Amino acid sequence: MTPPPARRRRPGAPERSYPRRGSVRRAQMITTYGVGSLVAVDNESFMVTGIDSWNISEAPTIFEHRLARVLGVKSFRLPPASDDTSKDGVHVRRFPLWHSCPKCTVLQHVRQFNSPPGKNECGDCEEDLVPSRFVMACAKGHIDDFPYWKWAHRKNRQEGEAGFCGGEMRLRTSGKTASLRSILISCTCGVPEVSMEGAFSGTALSDLKVFCSGRRPWLKDAPADHCSERPRTLQRGSSVAWQPIVRTALSIPPWSDGHFTRLQGHMDQLRELYATGNDGGIEIYLKALALTEKYDFSAAKVIALLEAENQAGAEEAATADSAFVALRKQEYERLIEGQAESDSDHEDQFVCEPPRSSPTVLTPYGVTGPMLVKRLREVRALKAFSRVDTPETRTDVHEAALSLKDMDWLPAMEVQGEGVFLRLDEQRVDTWARSVAVAARAEAVRNNHTRMMRERSQDPDSVPESPATPRMILLHTLAHALINEWSLGGGYPAASLRERLYAGETMAGMLICTATSDSAGSLGGLVAQGEPSRLRESLDSALDRARWCSSDPLCVESEGSGVGGINLAACHACVLLPETSCEHNNGLLDRALLIGTPENPSIGFFSDVLSL
After folding, report:
1. Where does residue 53 rank: exposed (0-12), middle (13-18), buried (19+ CB within 10 A)?
2. How far is the C-alpha of 302 from the C-alpha of 445, rounded, in Å?
3. pTM of the complete model
4. Greater confidence, 459 or 99?
5. Which residues 6+ apart lie within 8 Å of 101 measured at CB?
6. pLDDT tens across 152-179, in order?
7. What pLDDT does 115 receive?
8. Secondary structure element (H or E) that encloses residue 330, with its range
9. Does the first or last residue of the chain, that is N or C, have fewer Cβ atoms within 10 Å of its Cβ?
10. What is the residue-averaged pLDDT of the chain?
11. pLDDT at residue 271 in the model
């Protein structure tokens, strides 16, 4: 991200060289500071601009055919990097535009402070300006400055709705409390001083006849949209002020082999030849390409890959599942099938094979077909973002665009690592799930989750169906228990591991993989945990830890814990993880479905093992 101009340093302030002021990691441009988000840099605030303003001439290209097809793009790009001497990279613009001076307490547009060139300070006091803590946004992604003038003059309407009174706004804090009541807004025109209390209510702005401006400041020269959504007051750093919509996919055969990675830039020409049935033309094209690439391409493999593309597209079109559910099913089938290391070359991005020893020691646990994923690649793409509403609270959440133009690429990152894939015996799971007590606990989680979504949604009738089923909660909680166990026994930081759940009518598996490609990424240690003997020890230890929590009996007897009360027996002392490791934000968990409760041990899926 291109840093803003350097500011005046106070006398005696130490020189800092790392991290560079205003710099963020590339991965954060997908998950934390993507397009449309607000980035705090020292005492300033900036908004990341759209991808059509990025300079990507030197940004590496990332290919993931299955994910690109679903998202309607040709490829992905790693967010560009820049240094202190470069003007390329990711650009930002100042937002919000209303600032205040902590010394003279003046509150106005930043341009009215008469700041020196290249500095963001009060022209009279020479104090650093403070950007507004409050903004207003709507569920369609529009965002604008908070209407301070109307808020301060809301009880004095004789000034008129259209014009200003000519006075000077001021902002101060009384210091009596840390609440909104202590933040006071005044005007030199003489209206009574008012606090910010009540500004966050759902109708606070509509009661003032403040409507959404339709502004999209992250898009350069974007016209204001006509918007009928009701705007809401948000804190600048609120999590609902920017929520990324990220889509992920694993690289699986045949798209993960060395042929495909080398042919990424030539697939359009090969698809045209394949569409016309010109297999001979494909062979000639590959022979010519081999002269420049110095690689022996197999026409048979390329034709098989193109056939797999067509078949996958036909299957996705024929199924009633969403495109992203279809992606998961493809991964689930490939993880079961595997691909031996002996059948791969050093450029293959997917190696998955069964352990050498017999997995029969895992039969009492209901675990079948463990697979060691020795080589794995995951692509995470930023599709869009939302404000106010989140995909967890509405099925029709508005996806704010990343650019004003139609782009054939999206920002993305790739993680290369390793993992362990486990499946549970589906027949045993179904038999267990039919228990009345098990179904009742899953129903309680589902009801709590639905209630939370309705409370957070502006349209309670449009909330999505909760994914909480006995199978899903069991797989999810077991994944958390194993990640915690491997972080303690295997030497992995919990934040360096990540779950990927395959829970559905035809799926009952989980993939625990490395979530980062740094020193905690791919060193072989995670794969070693998947050997049946070690896995059995991990399961024994994880289930034994789950039997007792330092917060018991409050934890195991809880009727609703966590954010929104969507967990039952789950807390930070037992099965919760860093949120980056969890697909469901540490929700929909219940360790009682693993080990049972003191009153009813039989509801635990592993209760038979624990009683041995």
Report:
1. middle
2. 48
3. 0.86
4. 99
5. 113, 122, 124, 125, 127, 129, 130
6. 988 775 544 444 677 889 999 987 777 8
7. 87
8. helix 323-337
9. C
10. 85
11. 79
Question: Which token pair is 429?
Answer: 């799971």
The tokens 């969507």 sit on which residue?
566
pLDDT digits (tens, 9 = 90+) for 557-577: 998 888 888 999 999 999 999
Q: What is the arithmetic mean of pLDDT over 11-18?
A: 40
Q: What value does the mean pLDDT take over residues 211-238?
A: 91
Question: Could you tell me if 184 and 195 are in contact, meaning their C-beta atoms sit under 8 angstroms apart?
Answer: yes
Answer yes or no: are the C-beta atoms of 329 and 321 closer than 8 Å. Answer: yes
- Can you read off the two tokens belonging to residue 1? 């991200």
Q: How many CB atoms lie within 10 A of CB 457?
A: 20
- 221 confidence band (pLDDT: 50, 70, 90): confident
Half-sphere exposure of 264 (CA within 13 A, CB side): 17
- Split at pLDDT 50, 70, 90, the class of 324 is confident
Among candidate residues 583, 582, 591, the one with its CA nearest the CA of residue 558: 591
SS3 585: coil
Cα–Cα distance for residue pair 215/312, rounded to 1 Å: 40
Contact criterion met (CB below 8 Å) for 324 and 270? no
- Bridge partners of 247, per DSSP, are 381
Residue 421 and residue 331: Cα distance in Å, rounded? 11
Mean pLDDT of all residues in 308-319: 64
Given this model, what pLDDT does residue 567 score? 93
- Strand (E) positions, 205-349? 232-235, 243-250
DSSP-derived pairing of the beta strands 351-353 and 367-386:
antiparallel
Q: At 520, is the secondary structure helix, strand, or coil?
A: coil
Residue 163: helix, strand or coil by DSSP?
A: coil
**Position of tokens 């129903």?**
443
Give the closest residue to 81 by CA, choosing from 114, 107, 57.
57
Tell me the helices (H) and strands (E) count for the chain, helix number first: 16, 20
Confidence of residue 434 (pLDDT cuts 50, 70, 90): very high
Give the number of other CB atoms < 10 A from CB of residue 104: 14
pLDDT of residue 119: 86
Taking the alpha carbons of 487, 491, 496, 497 in that order, is the dihedral positive or negative?
A: negative
426 close to 281: Cβ distance less than 8 angstroms: no
Cβ pair 39, 3 in contact under 8 A? no
Angle between helices 323-337 and 299-318 (to 10 degrees): 130
How far is Cα 372 from Cα 528, in angstroms, rounded to an integer?
A: 8
Picking from 275-284, 317-326, 553-562, which range would have the lowest pLDDT averaged per residue?
317-326
Find tokens 């929700």 and name the residue.
587
Integer-rounded Cα Rg, in Å, for the chain is 28
Query: Cα separation of 451 and 596, whole Å?
Result: 25
532: nearest Cα among 364, 355, 366, 368? 355
